[in-house]
Design a protein that fits this description.
Distance between the termini: 5 Å
Pfam families: Lactamase_B_2 (PF12706)
InterPro entries: AtsA-like_MBL-fold, Metallo-B-lactamas, RibonucZ/Hydroxyglut_hydro
Largest sheet: 7 strands, mixed
Keywords: Hydrolase
Strand order of the largest sheet: 6-5-4-3-2-1-14
Radius of gyration: 17 Å
Organism: Methanococcoides seepicolus
Number of helices: 8
Shape: globular
GO molecular function: 3'-tRNA processing endoribonuclease activity
Strand content: 25-35%
Amino acid sequence: MKITFLGTGVAIPQKGRVQSGVLIEFGEKKVLFDCGGGILNRIFESGTSHTEIDTIVLSHLHLDHVADVMCLLKANWLCEKLDSVIYGPVGTQEWLGMLMDIYPYMKEKVNVEVREVAAGEGFELADGCSVQCGNGIHSVPSLGYRVEYDGKVVVYSGDTEPCDGIMELAQGADTLIHECSFPLDFPMTNHATPDMLRPYLEGSGISRVYLTHLYPHMQGHEEEALEYIKEKFEGEVHIASDLMKVEL
């Protein structure tokens, strides 16, 4: 598997980080997990053609995770790629339907199949690539995903407080991509901080953790976050950055 962090930021603009999006490749299959503002350009900058992406997996429907979905669908249509599949939580079909009503010309140009999924369910993204879903804790329904392919496991948390629903998916994973929105000792719900996350990592058997979805509040506190987590976690911990590539 190959991972490209396309966007590691949030809804507030900051230098070097656009909104949420992670590209995961399984053999020849390329799947986009979340598609926030700026992700379409990041796909281009990563060296991937947007027409190679016909599958999007959404963790939840907040704008900074979905803003470029219609942009990607239109870019693909303009390049004569019409078919796409979108996985997402309950409400995804209604959300996309309302967008298509706003841009009715798109209904005639693209063929999008929406498959709504829920915690405890699984699906296949490609031959030999299975996905399991788990609930996060966020201000709207949000899912995390455990992706298994060729003996490797990657877990993507989406937006969430550290919680059992996501960490059960992540036990023994090769790579956990977990949001870490704010620095140590920052009062917070619905998102993660290093001190909230560390207890869940202890004894988890996870090999590597990449922290993403960083608010501007985290600037200057990145090393502090890494050092704090490493005090109790035996695996590797990294701060994700836009266009960072990881191969498993």
